[in-house]
């Protein structure tokens, strides 16, 4: 049932090109994004003044990554709120708020409670869910399924990438309905349809990860840094590392380092620097130089021909050239593999990490 793989997690990582393709395919017809399952009319979409995305864990980080694409293409403000916080925060929600609830299992207690709270306050609710017929899917006004197929490993991989894919598709769809596309849709659709192939390329480019894992597995802690979309991806990369390898890992917005965290950098501290967003890369490069000058060991994630980054880093993870707007789906892949091989090196129970459950059905 593991299809020849040693763990479900690795099988599910490898299934991502197919899962992302299955999520995209039914939503693109005749050169346009369609969401037949959404009963929202163009004028109802036009009434949305604010979007709140709420979820837990990796689903929350999927929201953090999707926010950039929605805001950029739709110019609607997006707030990403942890479900466990939203439910107790008396959120500012009304009929003009669209609440997007994300959950792989559709059974996460805090997410269900946040959804109920938002419905009670009059918001329209849209669920992005993997498990068909789950509680979240049933409760929301609209449900959009991620067609990832069953996910068995506790650490989500294809669940996360298909969630982000749906948010990208929704961003393009809403922007089209709002009349904000100005002939751009074709270009964006080509970029979306390239994602499954680019995930495959990310596998092919990173055959050295098991070797890197041997170097980094005994680290006391790992810092993940990045800016903008790279930061959102760093958050998920650090969570993957923590939950399956039990190493302390923390993600920081690279620009924040100087405001305190840099005090923790000492000789040989590993820093994983995400440089997948050309618009902001120069700034991250200067943070790399800062941490290196304090003795950090830098593992940079970037494009192969990105000489500036390649020449300063100690080690490298590669991604193919991608559209930064849609980068999370591809850029997370080397970090999933790194977490997997570090955990393997440390002899951890990868599919069933200690203290964790696949679906957190209690508060
Ligand atoms: O089923 P859900 O998407 O609602 O689960 C949310 C989180 O519990 C989940 O993403 C968790 O953080 C994973 N273990 C991450 O790999």
Brief summary of the model shown:
Its main location: cytoplasm. The active site is at residue 358. With 363 residues, the protein is of the alpha/beta class.
Provide a descriptive summary of the structure in words.
This protein has 363 residues and is of the alpha/beta class. Helix content is 45%, strand content 17%. Helix 4 packs antiparallel against helix 12, helix 8 packs antiparallel against helix 9 and helix 8 packs antiparallel against helix 15. Bound molecules: 5-amino-5-deoxy-1-O-phosphono-D-mannitol (M6R). The site of 5-amino-5-deoxy-1-O-phosphono-D-mannitol has 16 residues, from helix 4.
Compute the number of strand runs.
12
Apparent shape: globular
Number of separate helices: 15
Overall residue-averaged pLDDT value? 95
Which sequence of strands runs across the widest sheet? 4-3-5-6-7
N-to-C span:
32 Å
Question: Helix- and strand-based class?
Answer: alpha/beta
Hetero groups: 5-amino-5-deoxy-1-O-phosphono-D-mannitol
Our Rg estimate from Cα atoms comes to: 20 Å
Annotation keywords:
glutamine-fructose-6-phosphate transaminase (isomerizing) activity; glutamine amidotransferase; single chain; Glutamine--fructose-6-phosphate aminotransferase [isomerizing]; 363 residues; binds 5-amino-5-deoxy-1-O-phosphono-D-mannitol; five-stranded parallel sheet; alpha/beta; repeat; 45% helix; EC 2.6.1.16
Question: How do the strands and helices of this protein lay out in sequence?
Answer:
Elements: H1 8-14, H2 16-24, E1 28-29, E2 32-33, H3 42-46, E3 50-55, H4 57-74, E4 78-82, H5 83-86, E5 97-103, H6 109-120, E6 124-129, H7 135-139, E7 142-145, H8 158-177, H9 185-193, H10 195-205, H11 209-216, E8 221-226, H12 229-245, E9 248-253, E10 270-274, H13 281-293, E11 297-303, H14 307-312, E12 315-319, H15 328-345
Parallel strand pairs: 3-4, 3-5, 5-6, 6-7, 8-9, 8-10, 10-11, 11-12
Antiparallel strand pairs: 1-2
Helix pairs in contact: 2-8, 2-10, 4-8, 4-12, 8-9, 8-15, 10-15, 11-15, 12-15
């Amino acid at each position: 049932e593991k299809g020849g793989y040693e763990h479900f997690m690795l099988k599910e990582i490898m299934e991502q090109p197919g899962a992302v393709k299955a999520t995209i395919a039914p939503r693109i017809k005749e050169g346009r994004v369609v969401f037949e399952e959404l009963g929202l009319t163009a004028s109802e979409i036009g009434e949305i003044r604010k979007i709140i995305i709420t979820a837990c864990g990796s689903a929350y980080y999927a929201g953090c990554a999707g926010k950039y694409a929605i805001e950029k293409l739709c110019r609607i403000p997006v707030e990403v709120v942890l479900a466990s916080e939203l439910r107790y925060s008396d959120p500012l929600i009304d009929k003009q708020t669209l609440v997007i609830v994300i959950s792989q299992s559709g059974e996460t207690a805090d997410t269900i409670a946040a959804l109920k709270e938002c419905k009670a306050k009059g918001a329209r609710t849209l669920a992005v869910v993997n498990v068909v017929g789950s509680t979240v899917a049933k409760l929301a006004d609209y449900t959009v399924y991620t067609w990832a197929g069953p996910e068995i490993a506790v650490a989500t991989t294809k669940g996360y990438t298909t969630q982000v894919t749906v948010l990208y598709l929704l961003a393009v769809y809403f922007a089209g309905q709002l009349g904000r596309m100005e002939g751009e849709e074709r270009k964006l659709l080509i970029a979306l349809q390239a994602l499954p192939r680019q995930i495959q390329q990310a596998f092919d480019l990173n055959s050295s990860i098991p070797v890197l894992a041997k170097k980094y597995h005994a680290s006391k802690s790992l810092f993940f840094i990045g800016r903008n979309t790279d930061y959102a991806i760093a958050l998920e990369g650090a969570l993957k590392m923590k939950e399956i390898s039990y190493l302390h890992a923390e993600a920081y917005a690279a620009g924040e380092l100087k405001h305190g965290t840099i005090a923790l950098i000492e000789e040989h501290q590993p820093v994983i620097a995400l440089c997948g967003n050309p618009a902001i890369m120069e700034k991250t490069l200067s943070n790399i130089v800062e941490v290196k000058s304090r003795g950090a060991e830098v593992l940079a994630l970037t494009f192969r021909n990105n000489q500036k980054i390649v020449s300063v880093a100690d080690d490298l993870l590669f991604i193919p050239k991608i559209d930064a707007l849609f980068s999370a789906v591809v850029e997370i892949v080397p970090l999933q593999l790194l977490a997997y091989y570090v955990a393997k090196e440390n002899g951890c129970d990868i599919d069933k990490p200690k203290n964790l459950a696949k679906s957190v059905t209690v508060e």
